[in-house]
Amino acid sequence: MPSDLNQKIYVAGHRGMVGSAIVRNLQAKGYTNTVTRTHAQMDLTDQAAVKAFFEQEKPDQVYLAAAKVGGIYANNTFPAEFIYDNLMVQNNVIHQAFLNGVKKLLFLGSSCIYPRQAPQPMSEDALLTGKLEPTNEPYAIAKIAGIKMCESYNRQYGQSHGVDYRSVMPTNLYGPGDNYHPENSHVIPALIRRFHEAKVSNAPEVVIWGTGTPKREFLYVDDMAAASIFVMQLDKTAYDAQTEPMQSHINVGFGSDVTIAELAASVAKATGYEGKISFDTSKPDGAPRKWMDSGRLNHLGWGPKVQLQQGLKVAYEEFLQEGVRS
């Protein structure tokens, strides 16, 4: 644990699910000088605004959790915005961090950086070994560029300026701050809403798309935040020993996955729905499996604490307070 809990830490994207969890975890660890800006206060795609912020605030560390995100529909409909906005945010924040003397920066990526046919579990070495999933390729390309930007600054300025920029690649996340919108939410918040509404309406059955056999990995967002802080605080020698030369990224996963059928049963239990769960096998399944190899991070001493059923319970409680209104 660093001795200076007063160091100034800028969390970009603090209103998002991951960014808000990072702020919560930093505060829980006793950090007292967290700096944030809303989108209305600073547009991260605006180079001049980001430059002015860094010159004024001079943070000691940066967590770059800000990103334009969305589901398949959004990625397919607005590919130009997804690649432009994310590239601009990354370029502005990482470069201004360097220009203003920030030695430690953590960039948050996504498991979609890996090829669609990557061997399971997906290891860090799979990056750039095959074709990406076409539906979110612009977003993935932007995230890959962010990883390579961190690596490039380390390579050029690590020795001379002490730059140490790292990247974490999370698996599917859920928990407080999630998006429960009925049309563009991810699988867990979508299932929470569906099972809740079925319970309220006494629906006898909830039908899930596909066969229920594909497997997915899920990580509670506060575990992700704890992992981010853990990676940021790691001794450089220990971190470098678990990554490739000049490589900045490391996977963060739960370590095991569940079938969609198992997930649906767990969400039904968390929401108290007692009706029938069936599967429409005429609908597509998607990829049979998406599972991250988190062995390197586990070897460094980090592991998740929140089990799926426990996390789903907390997520549903938050949905009852917030999501049901959206």
Your description of this structure?
One of its GO terms (molecular function) is GDP-L-fucose synthase activity. This is GDP-L-fucose synthase. With 326 residues, the protein is an alpha/beta fold. It has a domain of 221 residues: Rossmann fold (3-Layer(aba) Sandwich), CATH 3.40.50.720. 43% of the residues lie in helices and 15% in strands. It contains 11 helices and 13 strands. The chain has a 6-stranded parallel beta sheet, with helices on both faces. The chain has a 3-stranded mixed beta sheet with strand order 11-8-13. A two-stranded parallel sheet has the order 6-9. Helix 2 runs parallel beside helix 4 and helix 6 packs across helix 11. The chain is globular. The two termini are 39 Å apart. The relative contact order is 0.14. The model has no long low-confidence stretch (mean pLDDT 93).
Approximate helicity band = 40-55%
Structure summary, number of beta strands? 13
Distance linking N and C termini: 39 Å
Give a quick account of the main beta sheet: strands, pairing sense, barrel closure: 6 strands, parallel
Low-confidence stretches: none
Give the full name of the CATH homologous superfamily of the domain at 9-176 and 218-254 and 291-306.
NAD(P)-binding Rossmann-like Domain
CATH class of the domain at 9-176 and 218-254 and 291-306: Alpha Beta
GO biological process, one term: 'de novo' GDP-L-fucose biosynthetic process
Binding site for substrate: 194, 209, 216, 285
Pfam families: Epimerase
Enzyme class: oxidoreductase
